[in-house]
Design brief:
With 122 residues, the protein is mainly α. It has five helices and no strands. Helix 2 packs antiparallel against helix 3 and helix 4 runs antiparallel to helix 5. The termini are far apart. It catalyses: fluoride(in) = fluoride(out).
Length: 122
């Protein structure tokens, strides 16, 4: 039961961090391109493998799950990526939608690789 509570609490923190990044990005980014979601997912793609490799020797399995599944899982979002892509397509911005999908996939894989390499190096 404690695991569920920890994952839930970490999930609340991750969701709040995601919202904060969205609001902060909106202060300086005025374009239609969903930059906040892209940045959020890049950060999560780096952190998930990095923390997965770094946490086992530092904390309990319950805390690891809270951070990886709860915090990072709620911070990143595939659904927002999907909705953002459809909105770009429906507003006639097919090239931006294509670029967003390409940047999300290629950049996500890049940051997964970077986080994994960095996590293994420490």
């Amino acid at each position: 039961m404690l695991l569920y509570i920890l994952v839930g609490l970490a999930g609340m923190i991750g969701a709040l961090l995601r919202y904060t990044l969205s609001v902060t990005t909106a202060f300086w980014w005025e374009g239609n391109f969903p930059l906040a979601t892209l940045l959020t997912n890049y950060i999560g793609c780096f952190l998930l493998p990095f923390l997965t490799l770094q946490l086992p020797d530092r904390m309990t399995v319950s805390m690891q799950k809270a951070i990886t599944t709860g915090l990072i899982g709620s911070f990143t979002t595939f659904s927002a990526f999907s909705v953002d892509t459809i909105v770009l397509l429906e507003t006639g911005e097919a090239m931006a939608a294509f670029g967003y999908v390409l940047l999300s996939i290629a950049g996500g894989l890049f940051f997964i690789h970077l986080g994994y390499k960095r996590g293994r190096a420490l």
